[in-house]
Amino acid sequence: RELAARSIGEPLLVASDSPDPRGFQSTQPELQAVVDRYSERPEWFWWYLVWAGLRGPTTDRAPLAERFRELVEEDAGLGVLDRILSATGPRRVFLFDGLETTFQSKYIFSYLEGLLRVLQTIESDNRLSELIGFRLFLRQDLAERGFQNIEQQTYGKRLDLSWNYQTI
């Protein structure tokens, strides 16, 4: 919330209780409606979400949902990556939060793995990293479970946050 409030990034996925009018809320019906559909190709889901964010001047919830719905109906697959690569404009930093409430337990790890692959692609491709930045907020137990080389991918790029009942 603080990064969004300070305009350091634009919310693309937020927790279901987020008061920010930008970004998909994790339990939003537009997202939930396609989770089953892309369970075998979770990268497509994330590329569509990123492209929907890039296609508009903001990540305001209603227009973002409409752009995402259009992409899902078109079902362009990884062809959307070609569109992203041909995009121009200022670099945009997207914020991802609320993953633990976006997906049912049977899907959480495949979608998280898909997101990590997408983010790794963005980070390792000069054209994409000049166009897109990201900040991922993820519970440590999810990050450490079942992903190879997560420590290598996050080395020097990770900030562990913690709080207790009183600080909340």
Offer a quick outline of the entry.
By secondary structure, the protein is an alpha/beta fold. It is built from 10 helices and 4 strands; from the N terminus they run H-E-E-H-H-H-H-E-H-H-H-E-H-H.
Number of strands: 4
Uncertain regions spanning at least 5 consecutive residues? none
Q: Rg, please?
A: 15 Å
Biggest β-sheet: count, sense, barrel? 4 strands, parallel
Oligomer: single chain
Mean of all residue-level pLDDT scores:
84
Q: Approximately how much helix is present in the residues? A: 40-55%
Distance between the termini: 14 Å
Give an overview in words.
- The chain has 168 residues and is α/β, with parallel strands linked by helices.
- The protein is 51% helix and 10% strand.
- The chain has helices at residues 2-5, 29-35, 42-55, 61-74, 79-85, 99-102, 105-124, 126-131, 140-144, 150-154, and strands at residues 10-14, 24-25, 92-96, 132-136.
- A 4-stranded parallel sheet has the order 2-1-3-4.
- The longest helix is centred in the C-terminal third of the chain and has 20 residues, at 105-124.
